[in-house]
Design a protein that fits this description.
Elements: E1 5-6, E2 16-18, H1 42-45, H2 51-57, E3 64-66, H3 69-75, E4 83-85, H4 87-93, E5 98-103, H5 114-126, E6 131-136, H6 140-151, E7 155-161, H7 162-167, H8 169-177, E8 181-185, H9 191-199, H10 207-220, E9 224-226, H11 233-238, H12 241-253, E10 259-263, H13 268-284, E11 289-295, H14 300-303, E12 305-310, E13 319-324, H15 346-353, E14 358-362, H16 364-378, H17 384-403, E15 408-413, H18 421-428, H19 439-450
Parallel strand pairs: 5-15, 6-7, 6-9, 7-8, 10-11, 10-15, 11-14
Antiparallel strand pairs: 1-4, 2-3, 4-5, 12-13
This protein binds pyridoxal-5'-phosphate.
Pyridoxal-5'-phosphate binds near residues 268 and 414.
Amino acid sequence: MKPKKFLLPESEIPTAWFNMQAVMPNKPLPILNPATREPLKPEDLYPIFCKASADQELNTTDEWIPIPEEVRQQYASYRCTPLVRAYDFEKALGTPAHIYFKNESVSPSGSHKLNSALAQAYYAKEQGITNLTTETGAGQWGGSLSYATKKFGIDCAVYMVKVSYQQKPYRRSIMQTFGAAITPSPSMSTRAGKDIITKNPNDQGSLGCAISEAIELAINTPNCKYSLGSVLNHVCLHQTVIGLEAEKQMALAGEYPDIVIGCFGGGSNFSGIAFPFMRHNIRDGKKTRFIAAEPASCPKLTKGKFEYDFGDEAGMTPLLPMYTLGHTFKPASLHAGGLRYHGAGVVLSQLMKDGLMEAVDIEQLDSFSAGVLFARSEGIIPAPESCHAIAATVQEALKCKQTGEEKVILFNLSGHGFVDMSAYDSYFSGEMQNPKLTDEELSRFIKSADELNK
Ligand SMILES: *Cc1c(COP(=O)(O)O)cnc(C)c1O
C-alpha cells in the first residue's frame, strides 16, 4: 500500500512559532499612528490589544517565539493535523504532479482560525482580561474565538456582519453553543454603528464596520480587549504551526514542495503554510514558489495598490502599509465570506512587493468546480474559501500535465464546508454567478486609500 497520511504525534506539536519578521530581507515599513504619523510603539496598541499580541505585532528581532504550554495543551485536541497525499485527486486531474494537502479542517471550529484564537484567549487570561470583543464575517473567526475564550474562562462579544447574521444562522448557533454573545452589525450599540445606520438604515454590514464596532466596545469597556482573526502580524505568527508541522510531514513523505498554495483573505492561513518553507528560500537557496489564491472580486494582491491604509471602514485602526483596494471597498457578496477583506497583512504585502510570493485571481465558479472535484476525489467538502486554494492547485497541476513535470504541490485546506452547504446548493442549482468588479469601481474605492498618502 502507498502511504497516504503523514501523521505526527502530539509530542511533535511545535514548541515555538516562526516569526517571519526576523528573517525577511526587507523589514516591513512602520505602522503609523494616523494622528501624528509617527511609527507605532507596542504601548500605543495596549489600549486595544492584549500586551502579548501587541508586542508580537511589532517584534522584528526574535525568530522563534515560544508557544505557552497551556496553548500547546489545547492544540493537542486537534494537532498535529494530518498531511495527506491526494492520490485520487491527482488521478481525477490526470496530472503527474504530486499533490499534498494539510488538513486544518479537523479543528473543533472546522478551520485554521482556532490556532490563533487559542493563543489570543490564553494571553488575555494571563493578563487578567475578562472580556474579548471581535467581529466576524462568515462566522468562522467568531466560532473559533467563542470556543477558545470558553476554554480560558473569558467572556466573548462578537459583532457579526448583518447579512451573514441573517444568511448563516448555523454559524450563529455555533457561537451560541460555545457561549458567546452575538450582535448583528451595524448596531445601535456603538457610535460607529449608529453613524452607518443613520446614513443608511438598510445597511447590510461589512467586516470593516464590524471591526470598528468591536474596537469601540473594547476601548470603552474596562478589562476588555479586542481580538482580530486575520491580517495582523501576530495572527500570521500563530498560524505558522501549520507550516512547521507540514515541513516535518513532507520529510516523512520524502519530498519537498516546489509550490505552496493557500487561499488569501487577510493572509493568515497562507502565512501559516508558507512562512516556514519561505525561510528556506531566503536562507538555504530553495526555489519553492508561493501562490496566494484570492477571489477575482476582491483582488487586493493582484489589482490593489501598495500604500498606507486603514484596516477598517471607519478608520479606527493605525495606518498599515499594505496592498489594499481602499478601506471603503465594498466587496461583492461572495460565498467565500472569509476572503472579503480589502487589504493584505503588512508582512505579506512587503514579501509580495519584494517578489518572494505571487498571487492569482480565482473566479467563484472555478473555485466551486475545483472544490467539488476535490470532494468527490478525497471525501472532504472544502470551505468556499479553501476552494480557491484548490482551484489554484488545479491550475498548477494542469500545467504539469502539459509539460509532464512531476512537481510537488502542497496546499492548505483551511477549513471544511459543512456549514456552507447553501453555497454548494447555489452552485448546483446553476444560480451561482461570478461577481463582477469593474475598473471604474476599483479606481473609485482605491481613492479612499490614496487620500491618506498625499
Ligand atoms: C477566515 C478563513 C480564511 C481566510 O482568512 P486568512 O486570514 O486569509 O486565512 C480562509 N479559509 C477559511 C476556512 C477561513 O475561515
